[in-house]
Design brief:
By secondary structure, the protein is mainly alpha-helical. Helix content is 60%, strand content 2%. The protein contains nine helices and two strands; from the N terminus they run H-H-E-E-H-H-H-H-H-H-H. The protein has a two-stranded antiparallel ribbon. Helix 3 runs antiparallel to helix 5 and helix 4 runs antiparallel to helix 6.
Length: 173
């Protein structure tokens, strides 16, 4: 249960009831998770849905890039570090109410004269922060992986900087 990042429902009573529902059980099992409330007085908050659709689209892209038999550690590290940088950019732009990288939220904002409530902006920024922290923990092994320059580009390696046991082999390359 501790690995759950998000949960959405169709609003059925068995899912959202206050005592015996799945969401009530989830809140008891995982009490410290940040949540984005999708309901306000019984109505969907469409900006939340748009934001989540955009973020999940970005996560799906990352997920696809990390899959496959031919994905190397170098590629995986690049994907993860790139996405972490993008999250920083998304957060900065959300604070500045620039939603260009989040097309669903951008479209909804333009349709509503760029009116996205301040509390929503705060929630989205908090969610991006939590997502970044979670990814740093989850992919700690990749983010801290040291890849020597000679592995990335052996033809641009200064042989004098290599360990003596590798110098002769690199000259043969």
């Amino acid at each position: 249960m501790g690995n759950i990042i998000a949960c959405s429902t169709d609003g059925a009573p068995s899912m959202i009831g206050s005592h015996r529902s799945f969401i009530a059980h989830l809140k008891r099992a995982v009490p410290k998770k940040n949540t984005i409330q999708l309901r306000q007085k019984g109505k969907m908050i469409w900006t939340d849905v748009a934001y989540l659709a955009d973020i999940f689209e970005k996560l799906n892209i990352v997920n696809k890039q990390l899959q496959g038999n031919n994905t190397t550690l170098i590629q995986a590290k690049g994907v993860v570090l790139s996405f972490l940088s993008k999250l920083t950019l998304f957060r900065q732009n959300i604070v500045g109410r620039e939603f260009g990288q989040l097309p669903c939220l951008s479209e909804l904002a333009m349709a509503n004269n760029n009116i996205i409530r301040d509390d929503n902006i705060h929630i989205y920024c908090s969610h991006v922060d939590s997502l970044s922290e979670d990814l740093l923990i989850r992919f700690k092994d990749l983010t801290e992986l040291v890849i020597p320059n000679f592995v990335i580009n052996p033809f641009r390696t200064n042989i004098e900087t290599l360990d003596p046991q590798f110098q002769e082999e690199f000259i043969d390359l």
